[in-house]
Amino acid sequence: MDKLLKDAELIKLLDKVDTELAGERYAKGCAYCFNKLHVGDYPRKPRGVEAWDKRYSFTCSKCRKRNTPPSVRYLGRRVYAGVVVILLSAMMHGPNTKGIGVLRDALGVDLRTLKRWRRWWLEVFVNTPFWKAGRGQFMPVVDELLMPHGLVGKFVADSREGLIKLMFFLAPITTLLTERTDAM
Ligand SMILES: [Zn+2]
Question: Looking at residue 177, what is its pLDDT?
Answer without folding.
Answer: 64
